[in-house]
Model the fold of this input.
Amino acid sequence: MPSVTVTDLISDSLREIGVLAGGQPLAAEDSQFAVVRLNQLFDNYNAMKEASYVERFDTFTFISSQQDYTLGPAASSPDFALVNARPDAILTANVILNTVTPSVRQPINIRDYQWWASVSVRSVTSTFPTDLYYEPDWPLGILHFWPNPTATYGLELVTSNTFAQVVIGDTLNMPSGYQAAVMLTLAEDLAPAFGRPVNALTSTKAREARARIFSVNEFVPRLRTQDAGMPSNTRSRASFNYRTGLDMTTNR
Done:
């Protein structure tokens, strides 16, 4: 998808609701107001799983005997720096055992705050951790590993993508469908502030544009019909037929 400047995106939104005419320049005060609303829109998208267009795989390196690590944007000087804001959750984590060839990934259990609160001895050490509790503080999240890792193995974290905050002059490069969805949603949001109604066609286009990108990002969990190791034919009781009662010969 072609990139678009923040100024052009805002101008398109204001033209959609009739605030700007074709070729009319964007006033400075209007652009500053609109960019605040655009960042609010991105902030809302960051809180919506269906708005996240990718699961990021980032790799880091443990520091020997350091148990807790901050995670977030490089500007905030975290232990582990990300491109954008700190994630709301860690989807998956792996220790990368990089002292062998090829490297081996060892899954880390993702735990909740209740589990972390129940750990009575947190200073236990091991070459690599088996469990992780992520504390989504702001602006930096905090990774709590257990046991405390003593080796400098690699770490792989999988998180949902987040949208960075923008300023006038920035250029956005978003996946297919996002430019229209963002522009039209921003138009709907700006209309009341500029005293303009949102016509039915704009609302329909905005709703359809959001549906397109959200449907692409929907997660369908992997399903299975039985636990691993269970025999495929587990039904040994009689079947019941409401017409004839129990069928003692059926095992299907």
